[in-house]
Design goal:
about 220 residues; Rossmann fold; 5-stranded parallel beta sheet; globular; binds cytidine-5'-monophosphate
């Protein structure tokens, strides 16, 4: 029996990160925020004085990335999100990050991964898949409050524009575009508090786990 893998995909500020972390706590599973990998590649490419839109430069940085480098709080900033989405369009970058993510998902005890292509590309066989979303306005407000809390002084309209641009880029790229896997359950968190959203996610995952256990024990 392979481990229980939970794939949590969705756009920026949909609540998927918090949901993934809480699911990890509930099931005692390790959690990988895959956006952090792309954020790190974006920031480190810029830091090296190279262009995030240059596929070869960004892929080189991605191939050299080590897990120990992921702790930098700069990766959580608004600029890092933008740089991440620029490097994430390059096939070479995605290929360089693939093995690490797949190995994380293949841990014998199972894992939770959140991102954009977990249910479609990284772990297409995951027994539990969620696609977490919310309207761009709601997501922009959440992100705006979060950034303000971190001391970043930004206008709501600018954040909304960022979110729309990122959705278009992430959903429109050729390699591994953000989309709901056919067997993923859609969870719209627009009108839900984070506690209600987590509760809904938990129920979806519980049902998936019961199916997975029944299948695992009968085979
Ligand atoms: O989730 P987060 O906002 O941290 O992701 C930052 C960016 O990284 C996304 O906008 C997307 O371009 C890219 N990403 C991706 N595939 C993933 C996770 C993140 O392309 N699995």
């Amino acid at each position: 029996m392979t481990g229980f893998v939970i794939a949590v995909d969705g756009p920026a500020a949909s609540g998927k990160g918090t949901i993934a972390t809480r699911l990890g706590g509930l099931y005692s599973l390790p959690v990988l925020d895959t956006g952090l990998l792309y954020r790190a590649v974006g920031v480190l490419t810029e830091r090296a004085g190279r262009d995030p839109d240059d596929p070869a430069a960004a892929a080189e940085v991605a191939r050299a990335l080590r897990a120990e480098q992921l702790e930098d709080p700069v990766f959580r900033t608004r600029g890092a999100g933008e740089a991440a989405s620029r490097v994430a369009v390059h096939t070479g970058v995605r290929e360089a990050l693939l093995a690490f993510q797949r190995a994380f998902a293949a841990q014998p005890g199972g894992a939770v991964l959140d991102g954009r292509d977990i249910g479609t590309v990284i772990a297409p066989g995951a027994p539990a898949k969620l696609f977490v979303t919310a309207t761009p306005e709601v997501r922009a407000e959440r992100r705006w409050k979060q950034l303000k809390g971190q001391g970043e002084d930004v206008a709501f309209e600018d954040i909304l524009a960022d979110i729309r641009k990122r959705d278009a880029r992430d959903g429109g790229r050729d390699t591994a575009p953000m989309r709901q896997a056919e067997d993923a359950v859609l969870l719209d968190t627009s009108d839900l508090s984070i506690d209600r959203a987590f509760d809904a996610a938990r129920r979806i995952v519980e049902a998936a786990r019961a199916r997975w256990e029944a299948q695992s024990f009968s085979s």
